Amino acid sequence: AGLSAARSRADLAVALAATCEERSHWRLREDFLTVCSLAQEDFDVVVKDWWGVRGLWLDLLATAVAKSLGHQVNLAGQLGDAWIAPVDQWMETTYASAVVGKETPPRLAMLEQKAAVVARKVLCGLGGPSAVLQGAGEPPRRHFAVTRSCPTTSKASPSAPSHDAAEPAKVQEEERVDWRKFPSAPIEGMAWQDPTGFLFCRGGSGGVLFVRLKSGGVVCLKKCAPTELFAQRLSVALGVRTAGMRLIMDDDEGLRTSLHNAAVAAHELSGDGIASIIALHQFSRYEWLAALEYLDGFGMMGLPAHKYLVGVDADAGLWHGLGRLMGFDALVNNFDRLPLAWKNDGNLENVMLGSTAGQVIGIDQAVNPITHPEGLERYCCVVKQVLQEAMDGAGQRFALVQEVTHNNTGVQLTAEQVAAMRRGCLEFATEVVDLHAAGRFDAVLTGIHSEVSAAFQGRSGSDDRAAVEMVLKVAAAFHEALGSGRP
């Protein structure tokens, strides 16, 4: 008999297991659509033609949706506690195949964010509470607060999720806590012993785990790649504000023991708390983990961003800072933020606003090397067009930024605000050109490359100089665009 639409979370868990292929992925087929009560159109509106082989991307999206649902419906009960590892591996391998030859492919993190929206539609159709932690149960013996996932909040500053009346009183109390009110703990020299709370937020590349320390401060943990550490270190060297990052060594047993103990304590919570427990176990086992600066702001999307951008705090300095951030993104081909040099939808969640640490702060950036010679030449031509607009007046490149800003925040940028962004972008490019002309930029990049390679012990591709070579090429394009008559 064919599969029918799932009517409960338990039904959905069984159906997802039945439609999973090779215990690692899902295909966008009729049976998958049926059990999830979805239509082909739910996927077609997400996958764009310019991404490449459409069938491959649709299967990637289907797998990302199933992965998101699996966390919510306790798929571990059907596929085992380690079900997520082969799924992540399949997604990463398939994504690598899908983006071959693409100059500015969509990031996997963006695809998983889109998948989370589709997954929420499925869960809403099932009815009943959508909380991750539900059901009666005693609080854990050790007072770890393992709170629910927060897929609708910013990765760098979670707001307090709602709670269900059936949850344990201790959990309800913790759920009402607004994490944005906690201070940021220093990421250097952290004391991991006896953390007092955890909050897991789903997202790309494994999500983010917020850790509240005994001191009262909060740090963020995230799976880390060499390209991310390289971009963060370069942003610091070039005076662009991004969230601080420290790579945590594999032998940092204090952290890993704390995460493991938290997962053990959390087993006393019932219901769908398994998602948070699995997250804690996973983070304790990641080989490369980074501590990120905790920011108390919000992403450049939705009503909070709208209110902030039309308020008194949104002065010219804010737009100037956004311009510098966009200039940096162009330098490293970080296409997952504001789409100045790329024809995509951008991802404005990676711009943090309103933090006490700064008006505009970039998060989740990475250098994306373009290794194909012709592709790199084409990209450099686009970068020169961007800088030409920055000098001569806004054109189609800055018009796209205006459109995306309006779509995400409801704010229509004024000519003065766009001009401030242009000035910030041009100022950043001029600083890079000065370093490049003086012969010092190569040394800056080489130093960062050496630091990253040493931190990752030469593994995970950290000794690859592709990032250095691309950034040098783009810096030369900056130089050519501005020329001797630069401001």
Automatic annotation (TrEMBL):
Bias type Low complexity, positions: 149-162
Domain of life of the native organism: Eukaryota
Biased composition (Basic and acidic residues): 164-176
Domain (Actin-fragmin kinase catalytic): residue spans on this chain: 173-354
Residue ranges, annotated region (Disordered): 149-176
Pfam family, one: Act-Frag_cataly
PANTHER family per the UniProt record, alphabetical: ACTIN-FRAGMIN KINASE DDB_G0279609-RELATED (PTHR38737)
The name this protein goes by in its record: Actin-fragmin kinase catalytic domain-containing protein
Organism: Zooxanthella nutricula
Taxonomic placement: Eukaryota, Sar, Alveolata, Dinophyceae, Peridiniales
